[in-house]
Amino acid sequence: MSQTTITFTQGPVVEEQVYLTLAELCQACCAEQEHVLTWVLEGVLEPVGASPQEWRFGGQSLRRTRLALRLARDLDINPPGVALALDLLDEIAELRARIQCSGPGR
Amino acid sequence: MKFKDYYETIGLARDATQDDIKRAYRKLARKYHPDVSKDPDAEARFKELGEAYAVLKDPEKRAAYDQMGSQWKTGQDFQPPPGWDAGFEFSGRDSGHGPGSEFSDFFESLFGRPGHSGQHMHAPGQDHHAKVLIDLADAYHGARRSVSLRMPMLDAQGRVTTQERTLDVNIPKGIRAGQHLRLAGQGAPGFGEGAAGDLYLEIAFKPDAQFRSDGRDIYLTLPLAPWEAALGASITAPTPEGPVQLTIPPGSAAGRQLRLKERGIPGTPPGDLYVVLAIALPPADKEEAKEAYRAMAKAFDFNPRTHLEGSAP
Fold first, then answer.
1. Residue of chain B whose alpha carbon sits nearest to that of A100
2. Cβ separation of A101 and B172 shorter than 8 Å?
3. What does each C-alpha distance from B224 to B100, B115, B122, B235, B256 come to in angstroms?
4. pLDDT-derived band of residue B82, with 50, 70 and 90 as boundaries?
5. For strand B160-171 and strand B128-134, is the pairing parallel, antiparallel, or unpaired?
6. I want to staple B262 with a disulfide (CB 3.0 to 4.6 A). Which of B28, B114, B196, B270 is the partner?
């Protein structure tokens, strides 16, 4: 059983125009607050603001939080391991981009 | 319905210990995790693996599965025998997996559908995530793109149905691969008086035969004939905004990058377009061509291996 509806919609670019509160980030990623708190302590996420109530997460936190969540859940990695994996994945992405850009076309 | 051999999926014999199963799962999960693996089948493999592990890690489910016997092979037509699970009690018919994990019909026929977490009377709907492929040109000009989404929904009787929705999405000029659009209220409906969740749409570019992107910067590989690279030339090169006339400086080496300022993806600041020069050798397949190469050999006192001299055996 299915039905189809068509809706016109637009919205902001998260990475450029959106800052998320702790609650919004958790809702957006289906994450629990305590996990996000641990990842902030571990340096995986770097919000601005003094206390968790005042924290604002830049839009790129969305991708990092979802990635951290999947790695922690699927591979049972602890927070320092998640932090290390994310740093290494960033480095791999950067190296791949460099190869792709300087290398010959396909 | 096809039988699934979970032991085969995880690569172990039927008498494997729970520790073996955990170890094998962890190892394969790291190998095929879609966020880590570049294997094109990673996502499918990882899903299969998750399903196999959901059964084998749980001694109750594993015992029930084992009871079906070892004569079954993956892909065989299969119906669970009546009363197959008599005497087994599963602690909660749920897999404990997060949202988005879907198990096969085979799994569901044996162990039921993975349960949903408790829902409050009034709660906002979940935020959803989806990915949309756009053309690079859409990032230069902005566009409206249709996105078809299929969302599993619970109907009034609590059954799962699929609702298909088409969203006509405004793609803003200047968007880059990997960025997300937040579409308010387009996620899952709320419960009770709770508001609907949001939909986060991740942008990716369709593979392009000519251009590659790195953030706002765009790269193009431009092949040159050896004489164009050596003597300089004026060449028409494609850009996402249409062809431009490029001046190739004399003595250009392969790998040299010419930067066309602000011809990348628009924004503040706009990206740049990098033209990476490559040198293509004309084939020596005709007598005239061979003669031309011989003339070159005579004309140049050229040894491309001077820096290797002294190290040759």
1. B212
2. no
3. 49, 60, 65, 9, 11
4. low
5. unpaired
6. B270
pLDDT tens figures, B234-262: 999 999 999 999 999 999 999 999 999 99
Which of A6-20, B132-146, B233-247 shows the lowest mean pLDDT across its residues? Answer: A6-20
**Residue in A8, A71, A101 nearest the CB of B212:** A101
Q: How far apart are CA B180 and CA B208, in angstroms?
A: 20
Reference A19, options A52, A53, A48; nearest CA is A48
Domain with CATH 1.10.287.110 in chain B: 6-111
Q: Answer whether B43 touches A (CB < 8 Å).
A: no
Q: Is A8 on the interface with B (CB under 8 A)?
A: yes
Terminal-to-terminal C-alpha distance of chain A: 43
Single pTM value for the model: 0.76
At the topology level, CATH places domain B128-205 in HSP40/DNAj peptide-binding domain (2.60.260)
Q: Which of B98, B182, B212 sits opposite A18 (nearest CB)?
A: B182
**Domain over B6-111 is classified CATH 1.10.287.110:** yes
| Cross-chain CB nearest to A1 (options B124, B161, B257) | B161
Residue B80 at interface with chain A, using a CB cutoff of 8 Å: no
Q: Longest C-alpha distance within chain A, in Å? A: 50
Beta carbons of B237 and B244 less than 8 angstroms apart: yes
Q: Domains in chain A, start-ordered, CATH in brackets?
A: 14-102 (1.10.1660.10)
pLDDT, one tens digit per residue, over B260-299 is: 999 999 998 999 999 999 999 999 999 999 999 999 999 9
Q: Does the CB of A99 have a partner CB in chain B at under 8 Å? A: no
- Is B22 an interface residue toward A (CB < 8 Å)? no
**Could you say which architecture CATH assigns to the domain B211-299?**
Sandwich (2.60)
- Every domain of chain B with CATH number 2.60.260.20 lies at 128-205, 211-299
pLDDT tens-digit profile of B61-73? Answer: 898 888 877 777 7
